[in-house]
Here is the input.
Amino acid sequence: MTKKINRRNFCQNTLLSSAALAFPGSILGQKEVNDFPEREANKIKGDGPEIIDTYVQLFDYPFRNLKYSQTGDLINKLRKHKISEAWAGSFEHLFHKNIDLANRKLRGEVDTKGKDMLVPVGSVNLTWPDWEEDLRRCKEEYQMDIVRIFPLYQMNELSGEKFEKFVQLATRYQMLIQIVGDVEDRRHHHPLLEIRNIDFAPLVDIGKKYSKARIQLLHWNRRINKNLLGQMTGESHHMFGKNRLHGLDDKILKRLGDETNIVFDISRVEGAGEVGGLIHGDSWYGPDTKIPAERFLFGSYAPYFPVESALLKLFEYPMSESELRSIMRDNAEKLLKI
Amino acid sequence: MNHFVFDPMQYGIPDREQLKDLRIWDTHYHGFLNDEDPISYNEKMMKFVSRMGVERVIALDVGGTRKVPFGSSPFDKEKRSYLQRNSANLSGIIRIDPSYPEKSMRKMEAWIEKGPCIGIKYAGFNDKGITCDHPNNNDIVQKAMSLSAIIYIHTWIKTGGSPRIPGGGNYSGESTPWHVVNLAKRFPDTVFICGHAGGDWELGVRAIRECENVFLEFCGSDPHSGSVDLAVNELGADRIVWGGHGPSRSYSTELAKVLDASISHDNRTKILGGNYRDLTRSIFKKKGLAIDP
Here is the structure.
């Protein structure tokens, strides 16, 4: 059982680590040594589609320097994985009070570094005064067709006059509304950070009342339960019982599925083969009945999550070609098309 | 079940043959974690094991149940038989409780010395709120060493308490990586696996860095880009083992942590199975089990 440490490797790695600290973008972001030994590519059913990634964030996470925080590095990384379009928001949207500046900076970053790849996603914080003007600028000045909000971090309830006004205005601007559940596992938050515990259940009534609003949930599964998903997707489900995964709330999930047109990304759908399991009614933790593939969109949450996580979810469960094409590209194209 | 519709290599991820070539050992397998019908539950999970090219799984839910680790589970006999029949690709480690060192050691005799299992696991909770560095653990560790058994310790660093601090939100008896270090310093000649990287891997890696007989395993938490890079740079690839944590975590999540890392193919192979094979070589030999297919 005794294991000797290879000091030479340790020193080499330490040197690499030191270099990485000096040049985090170039070493951690660009050095790609993870290619597999060469072998002929499989010829199974021809080329798969290029992917649209509906959940990407630019810049650094407020509490960590990210490996692919440089936009150029991130774009190269996404391209390597056959992702041809990514809907990109900004981590600056979480806490910045001058959120308009964050939106403007994001627009500029996309224009200078990611024009052929990135779709800029603005944000407004309903807690800050005159957020309506921020939303107008997103649409009219920065030509953003998507607005992404972080209720747990931006302290916004998903009900009430203010939130309904937001949904109405965004819909009038023909903007897709993306609502993010968690950003980081709250068990690992910096001790000085305490986020709000926002109830996602009111989204059922919002989705029903504003049926023309286009709403996508991102990184949602700690916030949504099986019943609420069922309500959103029109499927009828049994209760979860004891098999709840990481706070997945079965009641909310079912209702969202049954009663609304709200769609979901896959970035934090968790469990062995769970994306396909939800679609095929073969889920470990979700509803027993099927949720159509048309309700799921590829979302990686890069660069916070490895892109590989969402990619592998496409393969872990044996899904059909049409299901995969829907998730990888078609659903996103339809959602953004007005 | 084992064929992918599109070639994963088009998407910059390994196909099934490449995954198989990595000789992946999933050292944190919860396929039996179901008290009502663990056998069927496991059979469903094994489909994913096969599809993702995993060579061997190490089941954690063997011998008693999670709630009653020393009780006799109605499925004990069946699980024991299943482990014996499937020893070519399935091993088991048993849950012990440092609240009861004597009972823990009797269980080790029954399931490791005279049974199919290869190690012990400290859970994230126990009856008397005893962390892994408590003196109660000395006899347990000595016993494990005499059996050449794997010692796996669940750790987490949960933010909480008043005032809020890292680890202040842990369950009673839930160890942190620094508890593992305290224990490991008393037994420098054996290896301890610090499970889940403490959840908060940035702190977990730092906590165990100085203690070379503590290995890191980082399953069960969200996949964070750069986590394995940090672990390899700070600890060396030789001190890292890998687990899948299915079915509550996906192989997608856990493999992505390693595939994201800018490390050599050799190091990737060590992390995904090679290091654990080295740790278990002795007990496999004692049990007459083949470590290579």
